[in-house]
Amino acid sequence: MVDLYSFAFLLVGLWFAVDSVGPSLAWLHLSMVGSASDAALSPEQKSKFFTLFQYLVKLGLGLALIFAGRNFALRLLRRQTAQI
User: Which of 25, 31, 37, 41 has the most C-beta neighbours closer than 10 Å?
Assistant: First the structure.
């Protein structure tokens, strides 16, 4: 059962990471190029940072599921067996 849960966490983590790595890099580049000046951020630039944050959070969650999925699976299985 632990292997099945680990595989599920890995699969979802890979999906999140692969789905968001490209847009994260593109938005990161666009945000850094757009904010290179010393002027205050415009509302359009602020929305770019929010979009970048959205993709970075999804990427971080995907990486967390990939690298810590086995621990999550063990915790989930322990919790399931304790409730029975």
Answer: 31
Residue 20 burial (CB count, 10 A): 21
Instruction: Give the whole-angstrom CA distance, residue 73 versus residue 10.
Output: 10
User: What's the pLDDT tens digit per position in 7-42?
Assistant: 999 999 999 999 999 999 988 887 777 666 666 667
Residue 21: DSSP 8-state: H
Closest CA to 5 of 84, 82, 79, 60: 79
Q: How many Cβ atoms are within 10 Å of 32's Cβ, its own excluded? A: 10
Query: Which residue is associated with the tokens 């699969």?
Result: 11
| pTM for this prediction | 0.78
